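Review the following:
>
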Amino acid sequence: MAIIKVGKDDLKTRDSALLELREYFSGLEAAKGRQITFSVRTYGCQLNESDSEKLCGMLESMGLKEHEGESAADVTIFNTCAVRENAEDRLFGNLGIIKSDAKNDKDMIVAVCGCMTMVEKNVDKIRKSFPYVDLVFDPQHLHLFPVYLRDSIRRKKQLVNISADDYIVDDSLVPISRKRKFRALVPIMYGCNNFCTYCIVPYARGRERSRELSEIIDELQILADQGYKEVMLLGQNVNSYKGSNGEKFPDILKAASEIKGFSRIRFMSSHPKDVSDEIVEIMASSPNIEKHLHLPLQSGSDRILKLMNRPYDRSDYLKTVHYFRKLVPEGSLSTDIIVGFPGETEEDFKETLSIVKECAFDSAFTFQYSPRPGTKAASMEDQIPHDIVTERFGRLLELQNDLAHKSNLAKVGKTEEILIEGQSSTAPDILTGRTMSNHLVNFTIPDALKIPGKTSDDYEGMLCDVKFTGARPYSVDGEMVKLK
């Protein structure tokens, strides 16, 4: 399997395809007498969100407009996730829903990309059951999307392009349509070398490959100059970053923190084996690095961790947690936990419960084990019955919900800076945002602080101070006391 560095000269075919597609869609627009639109539907992680921003950027370069309303878009792309079975179910369900639109409009284009396309059975199912899907391509070939789209239109039949090659492309060479005013997503590396026995990601995203440090810093400087308040550094295993000159993740953190303009620098996702004391120390000493560490645990049992091929044990994990809590006492700690991994006994599960109590996670993403075809765990003996997994999952949720509520209650009465993310989904007069420790806050604005003529959406990306007045299991309530 090759890792291929893509330069500007390698993208001449893509650029030619972009021009051809722009001409094609311009003609289609004239024929239909209306704007040609696109829709990109994203499943999964922040890296998928970042990929979707690039897809949107390329589609806009073709002259298309993002779709609004209930009718179907002229170009619909499903950017998929293969980590959980329910993500696959959602994709196939949604492909079924648009079947009539695709059959009634001979010019409509339907494409599927993302991690699901790297699982052979999924591609076979699309071929057999969804022949109206025009294009299937893998996440490593994202930069060549215009070429594949052009070729599928020329062929007028389904095009599937899946390869074992792993590409590394500088983001500056791909058009990006960023969807948020308050946060820019910046991948610093791609792929994973860990091969956890439950995880499909190394097979779907390929081997680890890191961008050049200079390219990353150049991109961050541009984003700061554009006024972004927050950047999120991304990678399947972000702190395993290795630059071509020996740079490591702490070097990126230091360099990013020195760029003027950023109020907050975040990073996800971390692997416990790669979180060094130096990373924690940089977080503690840098005022613009968010005081939030996402540290996936997966299980509190050393026996299960070994079966998962997680190269740390309970003691290693707790050492990192205690060091973080000591150096960053105002910070928050979140995690991922899998319940019902093959062979998990009641004693194994109790060890998970006990470490959850000891770590007192501020929040957690909890999952019932889902077998992923192609992974070692899928063929392991002693798969746990669904009813047992469900019962254990309920106990874990009860414990973690209580811990999260206590974490939020500890905020009540304090005043902290919030980065406003926009209007709350629950009420038009309530804004939502996050603290420096990543606590979710829903808050009101007193009339005296409201900006005349501004709607709730206009506050997105602004900073303000909020006094916390109450707490819920998943969020904190408050009132703005100062707009910055």
Observations:
- The mean pLDDT is 94.
- The first strand starts at residue 3 and ends at 6.
- The chain has three domains: 3-168, 181-290, 415-483.
- The chain is about 35% helix and 20% strand.
